[in-house]
Amino acid sequence: MINVINISHHEAMINLINIPQHEAMINAINIPQHEAMINISLHEAMINLINIPQHEAMINLINIPHYEAMIKLINLIDIPLNEIMINLINKPLHEPMINLINIPLHMTMINLIYIPLHEPMNNLINIPQHEAMINLINIPHHEAMINVINVSHHEAMINLINIPQHEAMINVINIPNHEAMINLINIPQHEVMINVINISHHEAMINLINIPQHEVMINVINIPQHEAMINLINISHHEAMINAINIPNHEAMINMINIPQHEAMINISHHEAMINLINIPQHEAMINLINIPNYEAMIKLINLIDIPLNEIMINLINKPLHEPMINLINIPLHMTMINLIYILTSRANDQPYQHTTA
């Protein structure tokens, strides 16, 4: 995933979330707020999942009048079915993302639906090919995110990912359009958003990544360390965020983006579940959340589990913007995830950790 706007491989994904909060998540890779995907070629499609201006009421992902919503984006789709949604993570780094939403609105993700389940990217929540899974975002502004299957408002956002496969993706957000698209994950607690693990709405919107209800998508993890964010690492399985996609405890965060179950992180105990919320591409590895050299990747992250709260999340984002995050997805799988597995399995068996260079 070299990055869809020509950021070099070594600078790829400088950070999906390291944008100042006042930037209102213009998008994960700094495309000017008024720019649009209108003239972006297929190879530059999928600028990102969340480039929705803070004050826009989910006009659409390309910031054009809602009457033209998706129109220009639709024009991008002149590719064969078998190339649509090939996979968000399983493509070589030089491949285009194609994107999560570049399917004509009127087709309602029919192309995605028809892609056999054995194809890469069975979609983010493994909904059977015959289910709707309209997609995570491209619902026209005027439909006010009523949701893809007409579920009533009070059932809004039963959660972003933990929807039974027969449910056809109840909907991503389903809040009135005047709500200014609070965004994919930061729905105020007064909204229904039972949240990922059925925590009552009275709780501070623990949601996918525990963003305070008063924050407006500061970004996926830029929460002050003293905020609710118990942290993405030290949350027991009885606590919120067993993991963002409700994988059974014993599977402990196989991960947000379709890493095969038999792949990395299968052996992470449920008490260490949700090592991170960030998507770990199948062939990449969680370099780490705090810029640790790759050979020590995750080692120190795991150690964070035993330190005081005020030192946890030493900063996934407080680092100066010029420090690259090493990019969460830019290290070969064999260089880190394997180490992580050994660290955790050794830890679980009370065995001393021995670094592996597999």
From TrEMBL:
Protein name: Uncharacterized protein
Protein species of origin: Pinctada imbricata (Atlantic pearl-oyster)
